[in-house]
Amino acid sequence: MKLSRLTRRTEWSWVIEPTGAMRVPVVIFGSEVLVSRMDERVWVQASNVAALPGIQQSVFVMPDAHSGYGFPVGGVAAFDADNGGVVSAGGVGFDISCGVRTLLTGLNGETIQRTLQRVADALAREIPAGLGGGGSIPMEADDIDAMLLGGAKWAVDRGYGTPADLNRIEERGCIQGAAPKHVSSEAKRRQRDQMGTLGSGNHYLEVQKIVEIFDHDMPPSLAFTRTRWSLRFTVDPAGSVTKSEPTTCAR
Fold first, then answer.
1. Are strands 26-29 and 59-66 parallel, antiparallel or unpaired?
2. Beta carbons within 8 Å of 79's beta carbon, 6+ residues apart
3. pLDDT in tens, 125-167
């Protein structure tokens, strides 16, 4: 993103001033390096959101922003329903309810560093990735409906997790009231083919090195220590692995 098009408010915030159809400004949070590396589509999409009916105060853009489906990923906006406000599908999110998962490896120092490429190759070989890549969990139509109704417990009951995992998931991985009959057959087919994969788009798994700990009062059970390596990824409510944010990683 071209910084010359922005007004710098503080060391960590930048503003796209209202022009044309924009009703409010856009406030972008991030360092100079992060903002400069954002793609231009973030500028375009955030400006478009600022022109939507009923928009309130400002559009806010987080430091991890990147272009999305009409609404930038990492964008935040509020709309007044009594003032012509809208509901944006792109703003709500097409992969809503994703949750981050971090798995500690127990390895530290140079143990992984010496074999990092081999680890990345092994992960790529063992974990299917991408739309059309073929999921590792066979699914029929009835299985899809059962999965949509059962959520994370459906996966645990089939050996894809442990009961303890449910305690770390909002609503224990299953929100009541699901109605699979309202999900199209095409959406179910696409999900069936991706069960047990990384998913598509910008989804990926990372090997990370813990380089700094900010919360020193965290429970000892988390066992985070500097130089230890972990795997980090996110999972969507249907159980297929989705996106993660980049740090030290092998892809």
1. parallel
2. 52, 53, 54, 55, 56, 85, 86, 87, 88
3. 888 776 655 677 888 888 999 999 998 899 999 998 899 889 8
Contact in structure between 223 and 104 (CB atoms under 8 Å): yes
Backbone angles phi, psi at 64, to 5 degrees: -95, 20
In 169-226, where do the E strands start and end? 206-209
Radius of gyration of the chain (CA): 21
Instruction: Report which secondary-structure segment, H or E, holds 240.
Output: none
Q: Measuring CA to CA, how many Å separate 211 from each of 78, 84, 103, 109, 214?
A: 36, 47, 16, 11, 10
User: What is the tens place of the pLDDT at every residue in 169-201?
Assistant: 888 888 888 888 998 888 888 777 778 777 766
Q: Which residue has the tokens 């001033």?
A: 17
Helix 141-150 × helix 185-194 angle, to 10° = 90
pTM of the shown model: 0.58
Report strand pairing: 229-235 vs 241-242. Answer: antiparallel
Residue 103 has pLDDT above 80, yes or no: no
Burial tier of 244 (Cβ tally within 10 Å: 0-12, 13-18, 19+): buried
Instruction: Give me the residue label for tokens 């047990």.
Output: 196
Residue whose pair of structure tokens reads 């009062």 in the numeric block: 217
